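REQUEST FORM: STRUCTURE PREDICTION
Request ID: SP-0412
Submitted by: Lab K.M.
Chain count: 1
Length (residues): 91
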Amino acid sequence: MSLYRVKYTHRADRDLEKLPREIAKKVVSGIQNIKKDPYQFIKKLKASNPDHPVYSFRVQRDVRALLSIHDDVLIIHVLEIDYRKQAYRDF
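STATUS: Completed
RESULT:
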């Protein structure tokens, strides 16, 4: 099985900078760990568009990374990283 590549949006990069350094490291390492089989570790958001679903990856108890996965080109696109209370507001 091929590994997925990870790409971060500009917003996700800014979100990482805002988080405390130790949490940001956990986010990056957690996302790197799911590159082989991402669907094992994520949940699909119910309100997302069926053509382009958005997934939630739980990094810590209260930190979520919102992802879009493109299987045809093997890319995990990190859209947003935030605390659980804030992360789902735009989706």
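NOTES: The domain at 5-90 is CATH 3.30.2310.20 (YaeB-like fold).
Reviewed by: T.R.
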